Amino acid sequence: MAVMDGCESQRRTAVLEDRVCPKCGKEVEVFTNGGKIIEPTECSCGYVFEAEDVVPLKTEPKEK
After folding, report:
1. Could you tell me which residues are beta bridge partners of residue 28?
2. pTM to 2 decimal places
3. To the nearest 10°, the Cα dihedral for 48, 27, 8, 54?
4. Neighbouring C-alpha atoms within 13 Å toward the C-beta of 10
5. Beta carbons of 40 and 48 less than 8 angstroms apart
6. What single DSSP character describes residue 63?
7. What is the mean pLDDT of each run of 10 residues along the chain (64 residues)?
8. Phi, psi of 52 (to 5 degrees)
9. E strands, 1-64, in order
10. How many Cβ atoms sit within 10 Å of the Cβ of residue 32?
């Protein structure tokens, strides 16, 4: 349904957020989806913000 596509695709769109590096205190832009980091991002000091698990929007029923 094309009408509902806008709502769902908005939730799948990555957002740039600023996170503070715990090692040096600088602000680093990371891509997030639902508040969770979706790809590893490295700070200039070498600290790496690791990707976090993102819960899928739809789950397929498990077959027995």
Report:
1. 19
2. 0.63
3. 30
4. 5
5. yes
6. P
7. 56 85 93 89 94 63 62
8. -110, 155
9. 15-20, 27-33, 36-37, 41-42, 48-49
10. 19
